[in-house]
């Protein structure tokens, strides 16, 4: 799966992507799962995807820790800072919970970043 990151795109751009995906599905085209993240600007992008938060996403993908405390221990990080990172990633839709277990589907080997010219 490729993660598509859109910086500064509009709701019209998002609508176009959704309608394109629906049209492909209606034509019966095989589709690989896609993950899209839209952020309004570059400062927001860099506040959201810090190196520590990328580490959180990778660890969650690899281990699916049963709690934030288990995640903090696995990362060798302070609980409070790890909890802050988890909350930010949950709010952005990059992490989810199954009970108390943290999960993610967005960590991939590849990310395409699109930004207006």
Question: What secondary-structure arrangement, pairings included, does this model have?
Answer:
Elements: E1 2-7, H1 11-26, E2 34-39, H2 42-48, H3 51-63, H4 68-75, H5 79-91, E3 96-98, E4 101-103, E5 110-114
Helix pairs in contact: 3-5, 4-5
> What is the second-level CATH architecture?
Orthogonal Bundle
Oligomeric state, counting identical vs distinct chains: single chain
In total, the number of domains comes to 1
Strand content: 15-25%
CATH class: Mainly Alpha
- What is the mean predicted local confidence, pLDDT? 87
Protein structure class = alpha/beta
Q: Helix count?
A: 5
Nearest-angstrom radius of gyration? 16 Å
Order of strands in the sheet with the most strands?
A: 2-1-5
CATH topology assignment? Arc Repressor Mutant, subunit A
Biggest sheet features: 3 strands, parallel
Low-confidence stretches: none
- The arrangement of helices and strands along the chain is EHEHHHHEEE
Helix content: 40-55%
CATH superfamily: Winged helix-like DNA-binding domain superfamily/Winged helix DNA-binding domain
The rounded distance between the terminal residues' Cα atoms is 26 Å
Shape label: globular
How many strands in all?
A: 5
